[in-house]
User: What shape does this take?
Amino acid sequence: QVQLVELGGGLVPAGGSLRLSCEVSGRTFSELDIGWFRQAPGKERAFVSAISWSGGSIYYADVVRGRSTISRDNAKNTVFLQIDNLKPGNTAVYYCAARDKDNNHPAISHLRYDTWGHGTQVTVSS
Assistant: This one.
């Protein structure tokens, strides 16, 4: 059974950066696509970024493209999400999610992910 643990959230001033990590256990890590999503109070869960099992395909949401980097370390069973130039509107709980690999095309819909972590709170102060 896949288990995901998100780390790295916290309180950050606007313009700052965070590096979130998603530690995966319980399955062969290289068989999984990983996605990052966020959910702000009163809003739906929204796509942030995704990376395929090989790292060969990477997607970003428009709201973070150009100031985010997703990567994976298959030796450490961990996916990283770096977000720079954070804005107060980025405040949310950030979740990572896993699904079986799919021809190097990671999904961007949260409905297509099977397993979720408990999330990590990111708060950006103005």
Notes: DSSP finds no helices and eleven strands in the chain. The chain has a mean pLDDT of 96. Residues 99 and 113 are 5 Å apart (CA to CA). The two ends are 40 Å apart (CA to CA).
